[in-house]
Design a protein that fits this description.
3 strands
Length: about 375
């Protein structure tokens, strides 16, 4: 028998009556304690209605959760729950499918998943509006079909753009910013540095089956003796490596000779080949640049911590916090997430912290606008 309505409540009751049904040992122990303390009050039977099929039950479940319905219904579902149950082929359904896939692709990116959950609960319709625009979908490298999601890139190539999209939605990007087509395309143009590059586009789009699709049959395993030696694909003519190196797009004309040399040496580091060196050099370039600004502005003794110097530097170049290019730098530098200043220190000082390539690429992209604007500020006369 399948429980269609109230499945979580039934599962909770079954676990309270038999904690061995729970796989996680910590949760199992907690449930066993709760069960012992409430052994006389835990229900052992529940009233239910048996329906001959799911379709036959749908009418009554919809009545219960789409409002009071003249006393028949109880708790109204939110927009996400109604969309999931009805399985509507509408923009919100697309947004939920995209969220589902993002959770699968980037299951280890805790900061992104936090933003995804916030968007799911508070700005699902805004995400749906963005994804309804074909130009936006093309820029992100995705398309929706009846069978699933078509992607033009590998998940790693799309990681930065997905992170940027959900970070913006979780913070400042509301429906008023993407209400019409021109606004949506203006937004895409503003995040062009985060979008996947055409040089990384797959030869053929890849179909990611939807959650309800039947899993494909397993591919036969090729014995080791028959495995072909992979061929190294030559780089496309004229392909830029700016997304592969630390701060490759940064040019500092007004810093000291030493700071300029540190940056130029950092720009020689290929992230995929030397991720640990790249992570350390990102911290070094940020530190030496904001410290030089602090010294010339007379802040250094007042701002001993790197986090504080970055905060003051951002306030110096953008006093009203209105420059959208600096939003990510502001957020990352002042929070305690996976890409915080604390982790920049850890890359250098902790032996057990191993930076991820996508994180280094993200840090390089996020702090690039800040470094460029700091350099412009250093070209001005220092305050007396």
């Amino acid at each position: 028998m399948v429980v269609i309505e109230g499945n979580r409540r039934i599962s909770a009751l079954k676990a309270l009556l038999d904690s061995t049904l729970v796989d996680d040992p910590e949760i199992r122990q907690q449930i066993a304690i709760i069960a012992r303390r409430n052994r006389t009050t835990i229900p052992r039977t529940v009233r239910c209605i048996v329906s001959p099929s799911r379709d036959a039950a749908r009418h009554w479940i919809a009545l219960r959760h789409t409002g009071e319905n003249g006393g028949v219904g109880v708790v109204r579902w939110n927009h996400e729950q109604v969309t999931r149950y009805a399985k509507k082929k509408n923009p919100s359904e697309r947004a939920l499918r995209f969220i589902h896939q993002v959770n699968l692709w980037y299951a280890n990116d805790r900061e992104l998943l936090t933003d995804v959950e916030k968007v799911r609960s508070t700005r699902l319709t805004t995400l749906a509006r963005i994804l309804s625009d074909s130009k936006v979908r093309n820029a992100l490298g995705i398309e929706f079909t009846e069978k699933g999601i078509l992607t033009d890139y590998e998940p790693e190539a799309m990681h930065s753009s997905v992170r940027k999209l959900f970070s913006d939605l979780a913070s400042h990007l509301s429906v008023s910013h993407v209400k019409n087509r021109d606004q949506r395309r203006e937004y895409v143009a503003g995040i062009k540095n985060y979008l996947p590059q055409n040089s990384d586009r797959l030869t053929q789009p890849r179909l990611i089956p939807g959650p309800d699709a039947t899993p494909p049959a397993a591919s036969p395993v090729i014995p080791p003796a028959q495995t072909a030696t992979p061929q190294t694909k030559p780089p496309a003519a004229g392909r830029s490596n700016q997304d592969k190196r630390v701060f490759q797009n940064v040019v500092l004309r007004n810093v000291s000779r030493r700071t300029a040399k540190v940056l130029n040496e950092a720009k020689k580091v290929t992230i995929t080949e030397s991720p640990n060196v790249a992570a350390i050099m990102i911290r070094a370039v940020i530190d030496i640049t904001v410290t030089e600004l602090a010294e010339k502005q007379g802040w250094r003794r007042k701002q001993d911590r790197l986090r504080d110097r970055i905060r003051l530097a951002l306030l110096h170049i953008d006093p009203n916090s209105s420059d959208r290019d600096l939003d990510e730098a502001r957020r990352m530098s002042q929070n305690d997430g996976a890409l915080s200043v604390k982790n920049l220190h850890a890359f250098m000082h902790q032996w057990d912290v191993e930076p991820m390539i996508i994180d280094i690429t993200k840090l390089s992209a996020v702090y690039t606008p800040m470094l460029m604007k700091l350099d412009a500020s250093l070209g001005e006369e220092p305050k007396r």
